[in-house]
Amino acid sequence: MRLFLYSALVLSAVGGLLWAQNQNQSKDAALAPYFPTPEVVVDRMLQLGGIKAGENVYDLGSGDGRIVIMAARKYKANAFGVELDDTLYKQSVERIRTLGLTPTARIIHGDLLQQDYSSADLVTIYLLPVAIEKVTPIFDKQLKKGARIVAHDFEFFQWKPAQVVDLDDDGEGRSHRLFLYRR
Description:
Strand order of the largest sheet: 3-2-1-4-5-7-6
Radius of gyration: 18 Å
Low-confidence stretches: 1-27
CATH class: Alpha Beta
Number of helices: 5
Oligomer: single chain
CATH architecture: 3-Layer(aba) Sandwich
Shape: globular
Helix content: 40-55%
Number of domains: 1
Order of helices and strands: HHEHEHEEHEEE
Mean pLDDT: 86
CATH topology: Rossmann fold
Largest sheet: 7 strands, mixed
Strand content: 15-25%
Distance between the termini: 63 Å
Structural class: alpha/beta
């Protein structure tokens, strides 16, 4: 009987931990759904943000790491992705390692609402409006003067964009809208 109670207690604790982990991943998916951004759009986002070699780029909800990788590889930036999903985190870390980009490309395994963006020169996002509402006060508080934000498809309603760019076709038959903001 004692073994049964102990087993039930352990299973209950493990179940609780798995539920909490699933809740965090569901929360992240609700803030930053995973839709791989076409490479042409990734490049245009980084161009629009005016990224320069050595600058710090943060990609929130970095998915498979494609923005982080291009920022580090092509633009020679110090690139950081923030990704909560375990599978996407591991996939992007492995790809960065395989490409030999670990000195300049890193993925933070965590909640995008719990990070420090004070060193960011450029932040790229594909976040739903509910997430944009949540990151706005974080950016207002943390981003340094001169930092840029490039938002893909969804705008910050509280801020006026410095530039809006429409991309008619990404090569896959979809149009995109990019918003550039300056702090």
